[in-house]
Amino acid sequence: MVRNFKRKTNRGYTSGDVIMCAVKDVKINNISIRSAAKNHGINYRTLARYCKKIIITNPSHGSIADLIDKIENPTSLNVIGYKSRLILPEKVEKELVTYLLQAADIYFGLTPTEVKKLAFQLAIKNNIKVPNSWVVKEQAGKDWFTGFIKRHSNISIRQPEATSLSRATSFNKQNVATFFSNLQHCMQKYLFSPNDIWNMDETAVTTVQQPKKVIAKKGLKQVGAITSAERGTLVTLACTINAIGNSIPPFFIFPRKNFKDHFLISAPTGSAGDANPSGWMKEENFVKYLKHFVGNTKCTKEKPCLLLLDNHETHLSIEGLDLAKNNGIVMLTFPPHCTHKLQPLDKAVYGPLKNYINTAMTSWLVMNPGKTVTIYDIPKIVNIAFPKAVSPHNILSGFSATGIYPLNPDVFTEIDYCPNYVTDRPDPPCSQADSNKKDCESYSMQPEISNKRFKESIQIPGNQVDKQ
Known about the structure:
alpha/beta, six-stranded mixed sheet, 6 strands, 44% helix, elongated
């Protein structure tokens, strides 16, 4: 079977609009079938067949006005042409598509092999005749799957992004509503302008870039690309942006015991840094970052600012909280495991930044053959990528997409909350633990409850069509 057939000629092919015009000439303008067929370039027998469909489908069409309406309305005629022979009926295929889309929404999408097996099971359950190859392999064939994808343009094969169970289940309506309630309270209490709403987050930059696609000889099993090493050394980069599209110079944390000023040679102007053996953000490093933040934003108790960040333990030290309080920094944290949806930096800035860093690092290796990238070269590479990624357009898009500014608590739809449906369950109706202990035990978290709700949430179609 040809999966991608392309017509060589237009012989035997006429669009529905042309046929409709020809039928109108015959039925309304009283032109002969042969003349109308010649004028529109249609075989006269084909035109005669469709003219008869008006009479067969609508034997009592009534007035001329009704006839004109029926001719100009494509639904008045039978479908022009012939549909492809389908193994699964159209109704079953539509139900299968609905199931696949809903499974993908809750992050339990099916692979092509699983779809083919499910199609075979549907056919057997509905007593639909299938090819022998389906029975032997116990799954649908490649030709059917290719045609299935083409027939339904709203589905496609996509590479899913790995999402931890914590992220999938923590991003729910309750957590999001609580965050926006706290955000709205802060906005009303302090009357922050968009210039005073800041978002800060850390990201890792390594000395080994992710190679991009290159042009190579067709048929090669493996194509190589130069990197500095097999595994890279990590440098933490802390970026800060605000709701009007501005940013402050980045803050670097190097994997060294002591920080030296020459670490920041060729870094973005105004950058600051610190060091610790691991290269990750520590409590003492965050205190120095806050001083860097205060120096660039000029916030005070009289003119406070809002700093949005995650609730990592390094951000909650006593010294850091005192420094923030004394300098008018109002800190609001995101709910746990929700920064991938609620944080502007994650939403619109760090993705482009990593791409630009990879490109700049590849260019550096080309311009310096035989050398490897070290942690001291990272500030120079970041200096190239930072202005391109941390642009006003990306920053404003991030704040808008997360609903932080302009404030929009309803920015997320039901589809965004679908992944937590599998593990979501109502709270136990018990106020006193001792008196209602049995009721609480009946609502204990058991796997079979989750499995039952998952099966109820997406019903696999079956026994819904007549036997064929």
